[in-house]
Design a protein that fits this description.
single chain; 456 residues; three-stranded antiparallel beta sheet
């Protein structure tokens, strides 16, 4: 009976996610009344998929703690949606839904891989949600945020410098710093500050002098990350800056020059850093070094290939054979047990969120927040590209995590920060629309009065 339920659940969960994704893309382009009529369908799909996944895990493990953990998650998700509707009635419900969907998938696969880590991740998610609940209100009301761009730049640079000086080495790179027993990865916070800094600089001016100054300061951030050998984060900062530079100046020469400079820097990094050479070797021909450098990527490819289109079913695969599977290679675990189709639809959830962020950016009248939205959208989607690209051997592995899905407190907090800022900008866009409509209504009596005078 358990095997039958596990087998049927594979197809049902793919169907639930496919329908949810389809609804998501439709809702982006629909009006508010049409959205309200369809949101309940998405919530039913989310909670049904979440229930089915946890039911299969419980039946295959008979771990009663999973039942309590599932109940706590379902209650927390429902409470979050209710509080969002009460505190921020004008918030984008689709953005909230996509975030919870990704988080639920992450907690489900972590429960299968390591129940203790799944519990810690859930606690960190609750803490991150509470800490970021105020941010939409700050974005909506804080008109002076753009004046603090030098603070964002200097504080971010200082945090990266602290990691370079006193950071702990993990897999050949200085990624984190430990304070009073708490380990943090500052680059996850700094990348959001970096976007605010660049947006503030280009909001002031976008002439050649300002571009040169901002490029030098941005390069200093990237250089510190390179010296710390955190090349994945360095690449994210670099690409985000290039996109924001083009969005602010609309000058393709700047973008092309940046690409050339980045390509040259990548060649230099490959020659200087041994762990970069190792990752390139593992990417170019992993099966020739399968016992050493290529072990992680080959196990990832085996897992994805074994899972096939619909997966082996939860708790039926061997994802534990992949080193650091809970963090860098969690996409392979998802593809092995939930299927390649499920993994593809999960990518579409990220694409839907990215499309929503760009839509918000295009509708914002405030040029500063428009740049911030473009930068944060680039951060999100490029991080997904690096994470999944490394797992499927499309690009060399960079050790980048999947937002809301991979295990890690700093990564989760950074993802929540991006979500909260975007939600604040959506509310700000709604305020702009309301103010515009109010101005139109107030101007109507004046127009009628003018018409009456002409008639007289």
């Amino acid at each position: 009976m358990v095997n039958l339920i596990t087998e049927l659940s594979k197809y049902a969960m793919v169907l639930f996610l496919a329908l949810d994704t389809l609804l998501g893309f439709r809702l982006v382009r629909q009006g508010e009344q049409q959205k309200n009529a369809a949101f309940w369908q998405q919530n039913v799909l989310l909670f049904s998929m979440h229930f089915m996944g946890n039911l299969v895990l419980y039946l295959s493990t008979q771990n009663e703690k999973l039942l309590w953990f599932y109940g706590a998650q379902a209650g927390a998700f429902a409470l979050f949606l209710i509080l969002q509707r009460v505190i921020y009635p004008g918030a984008d419900r689709l953005l909230n839904h996509n975030m919870l969907l990704l988080l639920s998938v992450g907690l489900l696969i972590l429960s299968r891989l390591s129940f203790d880590r799944a519990q810690r991740q859930a606690g960190l998610a609750a803490l991150a949600a509470v800490l970021t609940f105020l941010i939409p209100w700050i974005i909506r009301r804080g008109g002076s945020l753009r004046k603090l761009h030098w603070f964002y730049g200097l504080a971010g640079f200082g945090l990266l410098a602290a990691v370079y000086i006193a950071g702990t080495i993990t897999h050949g790179a200085k990624l984190s710093i430990t304070l009073y027993g708490v380990t943090l990865q500052p680059s996850e916070l700094v990348k959001v500050m970096f976007v605010f800094f660049v947006a503030g600089m280009f909001y002031q001016a976008a002439d050649f002098r300002q571009v040169a100054l901002t490029t030098a300061l941005a390069a200093a951030h990237v250089l510190l990350l390179v010296l710390s050998r955190d090349l994945g984060a360095a690449l994210i900062f670099f690409v985000t800056y290039l996109v924001m530079l083009y969005a602010a100046t609309r000058n393709p020469l700047y973008f092309l020059a940046g690409l050339l400079a980045g390509s040259g820097a990548a060649c230099v990094a490959w020659r200087l850093f041994a762990h970069v050479q190792t990752r390139v070797l593992a990417w170019s021909d992993p099966f020739s070094v399968i016992e050493n450098e290529g072990y992680q990527i080959t196990q990832s490819l085996f897992a994805i290939g074994t899972g096939g289109w619909f997966g082996l079913g939860l708790n039926q695969g061997m994802p534990y054979k992949i080193p650091v599977v809970e963090q860098d290679f969690i996409f392979a675990a998802i593809a092995e047990e939930l299927g390649i189709l499920f993994a593809i639809f999960l990518v579409f959830v990220y694409l839907c969120s990215f499309y929503m962020i760009l839509n918000i950016a295009m509708c914002l009248k405030d040029a500063y927040y428009r740049l911030v939205a473009v930068g944060l959208g680039t951060l999100l989607i490029f991080q997904v590209f690096l994470s999944i690209g490394g797992v499927i051997k499309f690009i060399p592995s960079t050790g980048v995590t999947m937002p809301f899905v991979s295990y890690g407190g700093s990564s989760l907090l950074g993802s929540f920060l991006i979500w909260a800022v975007i939600q604040g900008m959506y509310l700000k866009r709604s305020d702009e629309v309301t103010e515009h409509e109010r101005d139109k209504e107030s101007s109507k009596p004046k127009q009628k009065a003018k018409k009456g005078k002409k008639a007289d």
